[in-house]
Protein 1
Amino acid sequence: MLLSIHILSAIAGIGATFLFPFILALPKKVSELTLALRLIQKGANYPKFGSILLLLTGLGMGALNTDLFLKGWYITAIVLLLAAVLIYVIKILPGIQNALNVVCEVKSEEIPETYWTIKKGLKPLMITASTIDVFIIILMIWKPL
C-alpha cells in the first residue's frame, strides 16, 4: 500500500512540473498567457502536495526497511527531491507569480518584454528541476549502489 501511494505521489508531484514549460510555450497573446500562468498557479498544489507525500512515503519505507538508509541511491534521491522542491518553491513559483503580476497590468494583447525576461530566468530553473526529477525516477527504478 505504501509503495502504491509513493508511486502515485511521484506522478502527482513530479509529473505536473513536466507540463509547466509546455504550458508556458503555447501562449501568443496576453490573454492566453494570463490563463496559462493562472493554470500553473492553480496546478502548483499538485507538485507541492505530491512531493511532500513522496518524501513521507519514501521515509516511511525507509523506516520499515532501515537498510535503505545505508544505500547511496536512497540518500541521493532524498537529497535531490529536497533540492528540486526548494528550487520549485523558492524560485519557480515566485517567478510565476511575478510574471502573472506583470502580465495582469498589461492593457494590450502584446506580451511585454518584462515577461520574456522573467521567463528567460525561469527556464534554466525549470530545466534543472525537471532534470533532477528524471534522475530521481531513474534512481527509484534501477536502485544502483
Protein 2
Amino acid sequence: MESLRQARERNLLNIAKTTSDEDAMLLQRISHRLHQLDEHACGYGLTARQEKRAERLEQQAQDIATKYNKVAYHQSDPRGWSLYLVAPQLNVNSEYDKGLAICPH
C-alpha cells in the first residue's frame, strides 16, 4: 500500500508536468491549508479571518492556474482533496474531477 508521503511525491511529479516545480510545491501547500480550513469549517465553522484566509488561498491558486491556462477549483468537502486544476472549457462545478487533483497531505 502506498504511503501518504509516496502519494504526495507522485502527485508532485504529476503537477510538475503541467507547472513549474516551484508552483507545484506551492499548490500542494495551498491545498494543505485549504484542507485544514475545510476540516475546521465542517466541525466548527469559520471565523471571518479564516474565511478571508481561504479567499486569499483560492486567489493565490487561481493566479498560479492562470499562468498555465487552467482554472483552480476549491472542493470544500474535507473527505476529498481540496484543490484541482481544471481546463477552462470544463464545467468546474460538475467536471472538476477530470482535472488534476492537488494532494493536501
